[in-house]
Known about the structure:
The protein is of the alpha+beta class. The chain has one domain (2-191): Beta Barrel (M1 Pyruvate Kinase, Domain 3), CATH 2.40.33.20. The protein has helices at 68-77, 129-135, 140-147, 179-191, and strands spanning 2-8, 12-15, 21-24, 29-30, 35-38, 41-42, 60-64, 96-99, 111-114, 117-124, 152-158, 160-162, 169-171. An eight-stranded mixed β-sheet has the order 4-1-8-7-11-10-9-13. It is globular.
Amino acid sequence: MQxxxxxxxxxxxxxxxxxxxxxxxxxxxxxxxSVAVLALGLQxxxxxxxxxxxxxxxxxxxxxxxxxxxxxxxxxERGVSLFxxxxxxxxxxxNLTIEGLKESDVWIGDTLHFPGCSLRVTAPxxxxxxxxxxxxxxxxxxxxxxxxxxGFYLSVVQPGQIQAGQTFSLExxxxxxxxxxxxxxxxxxxxx
Length: 192
């Protein structure tokens, strides 16, 4: 399992449907070098809506790079991206773009050990209207629900440093609920 990119971003206005503007920190960009991992997230990263992002249980957001080709195809089919444009790390609003660990392979309570810090899996991401704006089509949240590709939130167990290119290991927790199962439960709730 590998950390492909570490991404941070500042809160700034995002234009949404109806022409209104909301504060959002979904726009993340890759950071070179080592980044401090603090109790409330990565140094230099912001969260705009602390009711749904951030805090101790959602300090860091990880997204599997394996899903990016799906989103690239979705955007191309809808005419949002006319060419075979690749999605850059951080495009989904993730702090960590990872490879080799998808939602079906990780459980709530598992711990990811990086060389300089440890992070615990706490919950799947829930799609929001801001994601639809960034992806460029209103059905993005529904497609995330259907494909079960939300990524997952992490709390900071051991603060320290993190850097793109590092490998990491997975320490199993109690294995009561996988991220995929937790997301399916949320999906059923949303479909009612």
